[in-house]
Amino acid sequence: MTDSQSQNQRQLARQQLCQALAQPLADFHPGQWEAIDALVNRREKLLVVQRTGWGKSMVYFIAARLLRDRGSGPTLIVSPLLALMRNQIEAAERLGIRALTINSANRSDWSRLTRAILNDEADAVLISPERLANDEFVRTVLLPITQRLGLLVVDEAHCISDWGHDFRPDYRRLVNILRRMPPNMPVLGTTATANNRVLTDISQQLGDINIQRGSLMRETLALQTLRLPDQAARLAWLAEHLPELPGTGIVYTLTRRDAEQVADWLNQNGISALAYHSDSVAEGFADANAYRQHLETLLLTNQIKALVATTALGMGYDKPDLGFVVHYQAPGSIIAYYQQVGRAGRAIAYAVGILLAGREDAEIHDFFRESAFPDEIQVNAILHALDQSDGLTVIELEAVVNLRRSKQIEHVLKFLSVENPAPVIKDGSRWRRTPVAYRLDHERIRRLTLQREQEWREVQAYIDSPDCLMRFLATALDDENPQPCGQCARCLRQPVVGESASPMRVVQAARYLRRSELALECKKQVANGAFTVYPFRGNLAACLRAETGRVLSYWGDAGWGRRVAEDKRAGYFCDELVEALAEMIQQRWCPQPAPVWVTCVPSRLHPNLVPDFACRLAARLQLPFVSAVIKVQNNQPQKSQQNRYHQCRNLDGAFAVGTALPTGPVLLVDDMVDSTWTLTVVAALLRQAGSGPVWPVALATTAGGGDY
């Protein structure tokens, strides 16, 4: 290509950029045209590492447009999140690109969209990496178009790397797909969050690939870190200082429950905020995806001060004028933090990023690391079960192996299915064992776990760093020439935002945490075939179901949870907890029809702990205590039962109820609740024996791990 032709093409590409941005004077950022040129004219494999907001999507959409205009086939974009896909499709439409996506949110349109793809009516096709795990999609949609694809884009390419902070196993399937594509097809990987170790891993998986790196320094972002003593102090800080922060923004939490709690607290303090996580739902919306899209729009149009979000609001959410990102808890790595805080200040002169470190952070990240990889017992149990069968569905596996469905069974199957060669394959809804001999790679797991522990230590070093915070981040990401930013709290030698909250507000936050009980919903449907002693089948009859109860706290949490944990270990629940539960029942819950007697769930392991507490609670409520439930059979600890089938089976025949019961509504007391199956079964037995409505209540839930 001559210089004149190159200039003409650059001018055409620039016109498309102006059209996409609706800015007639827009021009390329340094490196953007060079990347487009490499893909379109030299058909390179290219990995672009540029900071958030640089415009990586413009590179691949303009390249897709230019290639399509030359007669090339469609561009395939592998993108990890629905929110990211929505933004990408909107950007594509501004360039006149016919973009479509096949994902879990548009299942009813799959047939129409498939026809459009096969008939070459789409310029760009966006899919999630999980689509690559669907053999039918690969066979009927992807393979028929691989030989005519014009460009492959691997967005958020760090997800392909074991070393990446957001490794997605299904990205591994890309390597097999690549082998079926034209050898001279251009490939683009994009990321803002990859150090040298991750880049090397990506290069090895995608093949011989050129790397374009830009500076990761963010001149518009003022950073600060704060260690505050507890959750009450952090909630108080948010209530007092969030209104001072510029514009609108995001408060990141590590768990769904914290997202809900922080959003509720902010609203109680006059700050408009909504929770955003993978299970966010609301009446009036077709599904969780529709509601999350609504939440994104509210923030995008500045109708709320903040979204309080888990990492479900992450890669690809594009709000150029986002004024702040606050972390209620520390993320697990510098790479993850850089990506999240980098949402702020993309197209404005000043934005703020604040990291609030909490005492529970380390415990949460310990859980993340421990559950990141399946253990050998889980793997062997599933492989043995499949060996002994002609294929099993996930539901059938639940009855055979004592493992949780989503957190363990599906996790192990996903892990095994992306191994190469894979010891399991999915055939329709059934999983089958392959002839591949398999041994878990303990050395790889050990190596990755040690690396993640080191990444966590690096986060702690960032929080306590006496030097420029932005330079710390850039150095950790292997930026070639990091410089002091001049506007973080360390460079300024003074806080960007106030470092503390008033004692009065901290007291209010502590009181709020101690009044943050949650609804307790018992089960309505039992596991098929699990009960043989009790006559429970399918849906429990309405007359056997427990009412919606209450749990005072989360185990070990900052409200009452820490005290509950201490007293459980000591073997005696103090009178302060009696008073707290009584206050909650009488002043805030107020169940109707009101309980007229109290009973409890018995235990042979701790025969006096719960009955003693329930007796004192009954006395405080001025109600009679009746020891109506008897433990008649030793069973395994319920917490050791990992799925619905085994939880039900373990309780079958374990309890009996006396014959002379009071007839009115009853308060059913337990100390800990996890799956709620014990309370479900005991409540059904009480109703079966003639009691009135059963109101379950517990001191703490230990189900927090599933909430991460």
UniProtKB/TrEMBL annotation:
Alphabetical list of SUPFAM superfamilies matching this protein: P-loop containing nucleoside triphosphate hydrolases, PRTase-like
CDD domains: PRTases_typeI (cd06223)
Tagged with keyword Phosphoprotein: no
Domain Helicase C-terminal: 237-398
Keywords assigned: ATP-binding, DNA-binding, Helicase, Hydrolase, Isomerase, Nucleotide-binding
GO MF, any single term: 3'-5' DNA helicase activity
Any single Pfam family the record assigns to this protein: DEAD
Catalyses which reaction(s): Couples ATP hydrolysis with the unwinding of duplex DNA by translocating in the 3'-5' direction
EC number(s) from the headed UniProt entry: 5.6.2.4
Any one GO biological process: DNA repair
Transmembrane segments: none
Entry annotated with the keyword Oxidoreductase: no
Example of a GO cellular component annotation carried by this entry: cytoplasm
Residue ranges constituting the Helicase ATP-binding domain according to the UniProt record: 37-212
Enzyme class, broadest EC rank: isomerase
Family assignment from sequence similarity: Belongs to the helicase family. RecQ subfamily.
Protein name as it appears in the record: DNA 3'-5' helicase
Organism: Candidatus Contendobacter odensis Run_B_J11
